[in-house]
Structures are given as C-alpha cells and as structure tokens.
C-alpha cells in the first residue's frame, strides 16, 4: 500500500477551501506536479500548470474510474470515501456508473444518448425560454435581495428541470438535495443520495405511464427500444448528473460573475458600452472566477510522465483548474479580469469546463444562461450595488461559491 505524504496540498485544507486561487498559485510555482492528499487522505499528484492540466484531461490514459494495480489501493480508498460520506453500499453503484464516472466506450455510449439535447443549435432554440425565465425572476425582485437565493439558483434549476422533465413542484426539493450532495457535513451526502435516487426511480415509473416532451421520456424510449443501451441504474445516474451539475455550477457562475462585475466597475462599463462583448465576458468570467476549482479525481491506467514527474499506474491525480486558469505561462496578466480577452486559439481558451472526453456536456447551456442572466440583471438594475464590503463563501472543497450575495437593486 502506498504511504500517505506528510506534506503537500490537501483538497480538504481549510486554507485552500478559503482561498483556492491564492493557495494553488503557490503550489503551481513550487513545481509542475506536487504530491499531496486527496479527500480521503490518500496520496494524489496535484497538477497545476495550464499545459500539464490540459495534457492530463486530454490523455485517455488518465481515467475517472479507479484502476486496481499492485501497490495501490485506489478502489478500496474510493469505497472508504463513500463510507466516510455516509453513502451505504446499496447506493454506491449510483455514484460510480454515471456519465461523469465511466470512461471509454461506456462514456461514449452514455454521452450519445443525451448529447443531442445539448448541441449549440438546440441550446439556441432554448434561448427565448431562458430569457423569459430570467425576466420573470427579475420582475419579482425589488429593494434589497440576495442574488444567490432569489436569482442565481432559480434560473438554472428551472431551465434544467424543464429540459429533463422534473415537475415544477419538486424543483425546490432538488435544490435542497443538490446542496446537501455537495456538503461535507456528516451524513448530508448519504441522505441526499438516498433521497435523489428514490425520487428519480419514482419519477421514471411515472413517466413510463405518462410520457412527456422531455429528456427523461427520450431516455426511457431509448431503453425500451434497446435495453443494452441504458440500464436502470445508468438512467437514474444520468438524471442525477444532469440536474445537479446543470444547476449548481451555473448558479455559482452567475453569482461569482455578478460579484466580479460589481467589484470591477470599469469592466461593467465596457459591457454597457459594447453589448456584443457579453459572450466574451462570460468566457472570461469562467476563467477568472469559475466555480469548479479542481477536476474530478483521475487515475493513471498506465505509467505516465507529466511535467517531468513519473506517475505510476493506479496512482491518483488531481488536475487543478483554478491554478491552470491563472497560469502566467498561458495568460498575460492572468489576475486581471478583462471582458475583452479572447482565446488565442480554438475553443474556450481555459479549462473551466474541463477538456478532452469529459469536457462539460452542458457547457453551451451554461454559457448561454450565464450571459442571459448577467446581461438581463445589469440591464434591469443599472444602479445595483453590494450591501456588504466582504462576502461569505461556502466551505465546499474544490468549489468556489458564494453563500449569499446581498445587493441593493435601486
């Protein structure tokens, strides 16, 4: 069994949770690859520089499913982590069979089943509805409000639930379950997983009896036509992944982006003068203050070298997105928020949505929602101002999200 390092970064370090950008900037400048600890306390290689992070995320030899090899206990460590989080054995398959967790042909098979719903063309068709939802939410705001609870969360959860097929009455429950699923409080995740799995099985039964024009009905139809394409467990995990990932991260992008623009009035003024820059601005906000700080833990399926460091088959790797997105080797003045900054090449120019085969399936939708939300918000309330000089951040490992964002609208 590999030994646990006594030093090095740890995703659960309170200092890194409080200031992931500053903390991982220091790690990045120490060395390209540094041995630290994963959430369960076992060894993990932290990769922090832009080129190396892209190399890891784009290399099929790094996989999301633990690789059992001599000298490492990756599978046992993962199971121990589930136990620590209070996830009982019967629910472990729902944590290991989703599109976020499987690799190779299984990942491709699952991605094909839902990718048509997230093409740029389909997302463009959704735009009027996203604008309608944003407008209705803004109509209900006045005076002093918390942007997180009253706008940033309701918008994306409404959009993704309509797309998937979650009834309107149940959407507040999904927000609660999603928040609990990201919590490190004892037992919170185990309870949330049990509730979400039970709910989704019941919803699938309802939709079989009463089909609708939604993604869940499409998944049921695909399973009925060819059961080998999608198991019952995979269908449930698909819903969990789409709904939780589809609202949590986008809500945090909207919240983080609103705060960034309120504290950078020069950049906000540029957007008011040049509305056509909003898509570029959202891309820059995703780089500068994106919510996902660290990619999902990956495992080497073969001996690999990254940044001059030998990584043995079976060893765990943490690709640190926040430090890659602020790497001066990749960006001029990376700490400067610049809503006119454009990618040097094709694609996003950052790794906020990941890279490679596991690149975020809903990236186009998240960008659209971020653009519609922020543009609508600042157009509607041009005199909006923060109510507090300092903000409270939620203590969620690997994420950067505001607990609240109190503002005065007028």
Features:
three-stranded antiparallel sheet, five-stranded mixed sheet, alpha+beta, 10 strands, single chain
SSE layout and pairing:
Layout: H1 14-18, H2 20-30, E1 33-37, E2 43-47, H3 50-58, E3 62-63, H4 74-84, H5 92-96, H6 104-115, H7 120-139, E4 144-146, H8 147-152, H9 154-164, H10 171-181, H11 188-209, H12 215-225, H13 232-262, H14 265-273, H15 278-289, E5 298-300, E6 304-306, E7 309-311, E8 316-319, H16 321-324, H17 363-380, E9 385-386, E10 406-408
Parallel strand pairs: 2-8
Antiparallel strand pairs: 1-2, 3-5, 4-10, 5-8, 6-7, 9-10
Helix pairs in contact: 7-9, 7-17, 9-13, 10-11, 10-13, 11-13, 13-15, 13-17, 15-17
Quantity of strands, as a count: 10
Globally, the shape reads globular
Which regions contain 5 or more consecutive residues with pLDDT less than 50? 1-6
What can be said about the biggest beta sheet? Answer: 5 strands, mixed
* Residues in helix, %: 40-55%
Mean pLDDT: 91
How far is the first residue's CA from the last residue's CA? 60 Å
Strand order of the largest sheet: 1-2-8-5-3
Strand content: 5-15%
Overall SS class:
alpha+beta
Order of SSEs, N→C? Answer: HHEEHEHHHHEHHHHHHHHEEEEHHEE
Number of helices: 17
Instruction: State Rg.
Output: 21 Å
């Amino acid at each position: 069994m590999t030994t646990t390092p006594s030093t090095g970064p740890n995703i659960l370090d309170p200092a890194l949770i409080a200031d992931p950008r500053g903390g991982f900037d220091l790690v990045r400048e120490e060395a390209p690859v540094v041995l630290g600890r994963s959430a369960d306390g076992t060894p993990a290689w932290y990769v922090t520089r832009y080129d190396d992070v892209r190399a890891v995320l784009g290399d099929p030899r790094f996989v999301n499913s633990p690789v059992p090899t001599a000298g490492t206990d990756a599978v046992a460590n993962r199971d121990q982590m589930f136990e620590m989080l209070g996830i009982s054995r019967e629910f472990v398959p729902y944590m290991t069979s989703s599109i976020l967790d499987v690799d190779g042909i299984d990942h491709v098979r699952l991605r094909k089943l839902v990718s048509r719903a997230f093409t740029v063309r389909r997302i463009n068709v959704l735009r009027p509805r996203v604008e309608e939802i944003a407008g209705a939410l803004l109509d209900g705001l006045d005076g002093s409000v918390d942007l997180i609870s009253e706008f940033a969360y309701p918008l994306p959860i409404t959009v993704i639930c309509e797309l998937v097929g979650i009834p309107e009455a149940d959407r507040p429950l999904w927000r609660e379950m999603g928040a609990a699923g990201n919590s490190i409080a004892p037992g919170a995740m185990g309870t949330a997983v049990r509730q979400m799995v039970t709910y989704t099985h019941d919803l699938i039964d309802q939709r079989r009896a009463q089909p609708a024009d939604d993604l869940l009905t499409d998944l049921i139809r695909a399973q009925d036509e060819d059961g080998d394409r999608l198991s019952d467990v995979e269908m449930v995990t698909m819903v969990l992944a789409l709904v939780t990932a589809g609202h949590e991260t986008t809500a945090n992008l909207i919240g983080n982006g609103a705060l960034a623009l309120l504290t950078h009035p020069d950049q906000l003024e540029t957007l008011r003068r040049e509305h056509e820059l909003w898509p570029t601005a959202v891309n820059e906000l995703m780089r500068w203050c994106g919510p996902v700080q660290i990619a999902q833990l990956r495992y080497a399926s073969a001996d690999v070298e990254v940044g001059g460091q030998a990584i043995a088959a079976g060893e765990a790797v943490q690709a640190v997105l926040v430090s890659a997105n602020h790497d001066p080797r990749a960006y001029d003045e990376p700490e400067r928020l610049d809503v006119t900054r454009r990618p040097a090449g094709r694609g996003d120019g950052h790794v906020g949505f990941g890279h490679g085969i596991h690149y975020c399936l809903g990236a186009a939708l998240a960008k659209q929602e971020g653009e519609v939300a922020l543009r609508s918000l600042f157009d509607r309330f041009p005199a909006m101002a923060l109510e507090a000089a300092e903000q409270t951040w939620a203590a969620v490992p690997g994420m950067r999200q505001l607990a609240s964002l109190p503002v005065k609208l007028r």
